[in-house]
């Protein structure tokens, strides 16, 4: 049986991973948009 603390930690870790992945995707989108304007 998983304790409540372990469940919360796992949820927080998953949420953090998703947030950083979205941030990376946003940076990539901005970079590709900048390339369109430069070219």
Description:
The protein is an all-alpha fold and about 40 residues long. The chain has a domain at about 15-39. It is built from 1 helix and no strands. The longest helix is centred in the middle third of the chain and has 35 residues, at about 5-39. The model has no long low-confidence stretch (mean pLDDT about 85).
How do you describe this structure in short?
The chain has a domain at 13-39. The chain has 1 helix and no strands. The protein has one helix at residues 4-38.
Share of residues in strands: under 5%
Question: Number of helix segments?
Answer: 1
Write the element-wise H/E pattern from the N-terminal end onward: H
Name the overall outline: rod-shaped
Distance between the termini: 57 Å
Helix/strand layout:
Elements: H1 4-38
